[in-house]
Amino acid sequence: MSAMFRSFSAFNYRVWFIGALVSNIGAWMQSTAISWVVLTELTDNDAAAMGVTMALQFAPPLLLVGVTGLVADRFDRRKLLLITQSLLLLLGVAIGVLIFAGAMTLPIMYGFALALGVVAAFDNPARQAFVSDLVARENASNAVALNAASFNGARMIGPAVAGIVIVAIGTGWVFVANAVTFLAMLAALMLIRTHELVPRVKAPQSSRLADGFRYVAGRPDLIVTCAMVFLIGAFGMNFPILASTMAVEFGKEADGFGLLSSILAIGSVAGALLAARRDRARLRVLIIGTAMFGIAAVVSAFMPTYWLYAVTLMFTGFSVVTMMTTANGYVQTTTDPVLRGRVLALYMAILMGGTPIGAPIVGWVAAEYGPRMAILVGAVAAFVAFAIGATWLLWSGRLHRHEQKRFRLTLDETRPLTIVAPEEFSDEVAGTTPIRVLPSDEEDKLRARARAS
Question: pTM above 0.90?
């Protein structure tokens, strides 16, 4: 099996991938339908209302970060996912029923957005950490990248199908279809061979919520990663607002909006597959991807036609998934297993929790000054994130002058991480901590002592 798809050698991962792909298609259909309903049916093209809807969905992961991370570390993740996926199925059915009955209002939709956010707050860290339970440690980064490919592959299909369904038979059926796709994920979770799951260290009863925060606080590289992810997540990844308002500006209907989301996903899948080919996640790729995202956003903001704008979205999708997949893989593969759930919960809270701050601002800018100006807000955030990453790269000592060539710079592959105390020793620490090499004279003395004893 090729290096790109090496995680498929595990039965559990193959089952998970198929179930997740089908479920993600439904999730993207529902996300598209919610945005379109709020923008065109519950309001008169009010982008600010869309921003509030997104904020309500993404606020709970930030507010509940400590609890959700500890739950993911302490309890059986497969059983936890069975519960959260079932709840998401029921919420989708309820939204569809209210739309069919003509009883849906903007405040009620706000309530459902908040409920979806609360369930997702528990679902996301458990789902992200569970991927590492499905494959061997050496394939964890590849599994994360393929997971992103699944997510963004669904993004190519889901929004386009949702747009066609909305135009043809109405938005209510989109939510019904989403509920059906959740059955695939539930079936996958039931089919997984629990005895083949990778053994993991569960958090002890004495573990504290603050342990995850303390761990990240001792890792400058993770602090920088989270800062960059926060800026992009808050101001750059508000694609439902940007794509829908740009579709309206170009005179398109729901199918035009769905097509833009699918075109964005073409680049996203390409970025995820290239990430899957890399042997491990590197921070330099995250920093470069951030700069690429800022450039792509600036170019897309000035496109004069629908199709030219659509083409630039492929580059936007490629760059944002390159950086996000790299960030996710880096956090997962360099974090101590005992704390992985809590650290991932913090990471997801920063990624998704930035939306309650950024989405209303971006929505307001789109409503007052137009969607092109809102796109430029995301571009500025990307360049600020790039500046943070590049500054840290210089400060950390990884980037330095070449020892032999005067005008050439060298970037070190790794830098020692000495953050976990000896009693919390793990394979991740062993893989990132250098072994001290003794000078030759000290080695001779040790050998002499050994022979004498």
Answer: no
